[in-house]
Amino acid sequence: MGRVVSRDARNWRLYTPAIPAFFTSVAYANGRFYLLGDNSTILQSNPIIHLRTIDFTDAGARLTFTGETGHQYEVQTSADLIRWDRLGTVPGTQEQMEYLDRAPPGTAARFYRVVMQDNP
């Protein structure tokens, strides 16, 4: 069954999902989202990564984030939120992790994100 969808409310098209399922509920538990639907469908997200703080020090920008242990995390930066560059990786050896971005003084403003690289 298809649905009529639009990104700009002017141009409309018929969209048929690749997985025909209707979701009835969304739940959040244990750091993950769960979608519950018909035909006994349950979808589970990857663990949620929380970027807690960004502290600016003389040494650079210190990012503190939480995630699940046993995963590898990649810290990325962007100037425009479109193209992302890898800064480094952090092993998930504890629930709260840190990364120090030693960008030189005068570096243009930047955005940060943390991406989980693998599953345990």
Annotation keywords:
120 residues, mainly beta, three-stranded antiparallel β-sheet, 0% helix
Structure notes:
This protein has 120 residues and is mainly β. The chain has 2 domains: 3-44, no CATH class; 50-116. It is built from no helices and 11 strands. The protein has strands spanning 3-5, 13-15, 23-29, 32-37, 42-44, 50-57, 60-66, 72-78, 85-91, 96-101, 111-116. The strands form 4 sheets. Strands 3-4-5 form a 3-stranded antiparallel beta sheet, with no helix packed on it. The chain has a 3-stranded antiparallel beta sheet with strand order 6-7-10, with no helix packed on it.
Topology:
Blueprint: E1 3-5, E2 13-15, E3 23-29, E4 32-37, E5 42-44, E6 50-57, E7 60-66, E8 72-78, E9 85-91, E10 96-101, E11 111-116
Antiparallel strand pairs: 1-2, 3-4, 4-5, 6-7, 7-10, 8-9, 8-11
